[in-house]
Design a protein that fits this description.
Elements lengths: L1 E2 L2 E8 L11 E6 L4 H9 L8 E3 L6 E3 L3 E6 L6 E7 L2 E7 L4 H10 L17 H5 L2 E2 L2 E2 L4 E8 L5 E5 L20 E11 L9 H8 L8 H15 L8 E4 L5 E2 L1 H10 L5 E3 L5 E3 L1 H7 L6 E2 L2 E3 L6 E4 L9 H19 L8 E3 L8
């Protein structure tokens, strides 16, 4: 079955389309390769009233059940420079591009700004949804605009950075208007002269130890790739969805109380006066680092990462993941009085029990 050159697959297996390798099926799966065909697909009356769900590379998902209606995995490619002005360059990339490929490509062109976001898994279309961030840089720091299509009628809209409603690991696409938009393209404003972000102590120390010839944006990327590979498991060999919980923010009063009881507490001051706690430290102190229950566990090198040891036989379900995550969350709550918020999105939306 086809629709304006968009292949449609019935009862499609989604196990290879989520990095936790959870078994689930899509009633209908579409893999559009251009915006015009995608818009036509969304306007097709056959899908009126049917659920419409967007999945990128599945690196931030918990598939809790089969997904009804139409599941769209955008394959929109393309990278190009749009304009140059003074010391900056505006580039555009398709939502189906692999994020880390774009990071490497931009640095290869001599454009700086994405190196701190190296090796983050997923497609470019998911980057604004989650407002990806690492080592002191968030996508919102470099994003100029987002192009999107309405999932209801295929109409196009451009969102400026301010209109995206960015917050910590959040955006209007994830929260206020979740399930309403399909991101098709990103516009990023990058630097032609480096303005390196080295606010993290471990990164700054390792960077300063490099030979001067390697103290470049590419050098930052190489260091961050080394750090991430040492701490984080490759989903291709040990299925996971990256950081499973957000770093929680608490008031200064609650932070002071926790610090009095736990002198080694890891926390970072925020612009709004709150303190951001390291979720990985909380999980480790609660006894979960490297701990395994059945086929699920928290990674031995990074307690923030939930891993699926049972992906080979496909027996682990989304319900199993949510139940295990609830145990970790309840344990941290009992010890610290802090509630962890899950980072990966649960699909289908009606399955969000335990989130």
């Amino acid at each position: 079955m086809t629709d304006n050159a968009v292949p449609l697959h019935h009862n499609a297996d989604l196990r290879s389309r989520n990095t936790l390798r959870l078994s689930a099926r899509a009633e209908w799966l579409a893999l559009p390769q251009d915006s015009a065909a995608l818009a036509a697909l969304l306007r097709d009356p056959r899908w009126r009233g049917q659920p419409r769900t967007v999945i990128g590379e599945g690196s931030n998902l918990v598939l809790a059940a089969d997904i009804p209606g139409l599941v769209i995995c955008p394959q929109l490619r393309g990278r190009q420079r749009l304009t140059e002005q003074d010391d900056q360059v505006l580039v555009e990339v398709g939502a189906g591009e692999h994020w880390d490929d774009v990071v490497a490509w931009s640095l290869g062109q001599g454009w700086q700004g994405l190196e701190n976001l190296s090796l983050i898994p997923g497609a470019c279309g998911a980057a604004p949804f989650q407002n990806i961030g690492a080592y002191g840089v968030e996508l919102s720091d470099v994003l100029e605009a987002v192009e999107a299509l309405s999932l209801e009628d295929g109409s196009a809209r451009t969102f400026t950075r301010d209109e995206c409603g960015f917050a910590y690991r959040d955006s209007r696409f994830k929260s206020a208007e979740r399930g309403q938009w399909l991101i098709t393209r990103l516009r990023l404003r990058l630097n032609r002269t480096p303005r390196l972000q080295l606010g993290y102590a471990d990164l700054a120390a390792q960077f300063s130890a490099l030979p001067e010839t390697l103290q470049t944006p590419a050098g930052v990327r190489d260091l961050i790739c080394q750090i991430r590979r040492a701490k984080l498991p490759d989903p291709a060999t040990l299925p996971n969805a990256g950081s499973f919980f957000k770093n929680p923010c608490v008031s200064t009063a609650q932070h002071a109380d926790l610090l009095a009881r736990f002198p080694d507490l890891v926390a970072f001051p925020q612009a709004d006066g709150q303190m951001k706690l390291a979720a990985g430290w909380l999980i480790e102190q609660a006894g979960w680092k490297g701990r395994r229950v059945g086929d699920l566990g928290m990674h031995a090198q990074q307690a923030l990462v939930l891993v699926n040891h049972g992906a080979a036989d496909g027996t682990v379900t989304g319900a199993d993941v949510l139940a295990f995550a609830a145990q970790v969350r309840d344990s941290v709550q009992a010890r610290f009085g802090v509630t962890l918020e899950q980072e990966p999105v649960i699909l289908p939306a009606h399955s969000e029990r335990g989130a």
